[in-house]
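Input (Helix-turn-helix domain-containing protein):
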Amino acid sequence: MAMNARTATTALSESQSGSQFAGLPGWRAHNRADPDWWINEHFEGRSLAEVLRQRDISSLFRFLKSRGWSQAAVAAATGTTENQVRAVIQGRQRVTSYDVLERIAERLDIPRGLMGLAYVP
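Output:
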């Protein structure tokens, strides 16, 4: 799926690997986000669970930056480019593609159900 500026949606590239960013601030030893964040943390007055439920990827990326992740680290972890991360953070692009949302959830160890991507009892 290609980026469409009019609809502000994007299918982000999978060309980068997170392994090259091991050791960057905010990364755990095994190159993953802390899974407890998605349930227990808050950002800008909202729980991260709410941010994820609303699929607010801009807030998700801003949260990661607040935890010390660079845009390069966010891009690598989610299979996107720094330019795409910047556009999402700035609100110039929205992530609405199921495949991209699924990839972000998988690569950040976000339980899919928190983003409405799977049935959760």
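The two ends are 31 Å apart (CA to CA).
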